[in-house]
Amino acid sequence: MYNFTDSKEERVPGQRRNRGMQKKQERNLMSIVVGLANMSPKQLKAVSHLLPPGAVEAVGIAARLPRSNQGRKRQEQLVAKMMRGQVGEGALTKLEAAVALAEDNAGVWDDGDVSGRVLAWREGLLAGDEAVAAEVYGYPRAWAPDHQQLRSAVRACQQAMEEEAKASGAATAPAASSSDAAALADVGSSSNDADDEEEEDLAAVLAVAAARSRRGSSTSVGAAAPPKSRAMLKTLTKMLKPLALRVVAEADAKGATGPGSEDEDEDEEA
């Protein structure tokens, strides 16, 4: 049974509770907790920013116990108590989606709010957007990556991208190879002979295909290394992700109300 004393909500004097809604929310919360306990460590890590301090460790304890063990059920109830009133509706919705994904064995859930924020920050910093820079560097230093290291990473990535852009612009479109030209010339010279036109055309097509195949095989041996900026972009993403996780977690926590905090139904207002 739901214990109202466990909720961190503030009661309004004279306000009646919607007990049916509270029970439904409690069942939903327990379903989420059970799903979290069934997740793999990697799946659980992906939603750790949505959980209150200590909840991930508590879920890990429950996960190590047999499913039929009463101790596991008590541990899951403890996790629910930790989450009650501490996890907002937005975070609960995300946790439901993550649990559903894990139950379907569909991989690791990705928080779109986090990945979207990281991408926007990364692109803004690389573009020199002052508003984005003010936002990123405006968060508490305890949340953010080292500002000096982040600025250095941004400059290095910008420089690498500029160098690659210059190199790409300087490169001209490759001229047709001599083998292609010869094959096409054969087509022109043989087109005058109406009787052999089809055979000559087929031979020309085969010649062009063979030439392209040879050219492709020769370039594949010494395949170009991936652009330098690609690795730098990954580094920049890794540096920004912890900050995005913290920002999203704080935003979700602001809406934390937990089960039992809903106002009474319109049916009860009369």
Automatic annotation (TrEMBL):
Biased composition, class Low complexity, residue ranges: 210-225
Region (Disordered): 1-26, 210-230, 251-270
Alphabetized Gene3D superfamilies for the sequence: PSPTO4464-like domains
InterPro entries the UniProt entry points to: DarP (IPR006839), DarP_sf (IPR023153)
Pfam families: DarP (PF04751)
Bias (Acidic residues): 261-270
Biased composition (Basic and acidic residues): 1-13
Organism: Chlamydomonas incerta
Protein name: Uncharacterized protein
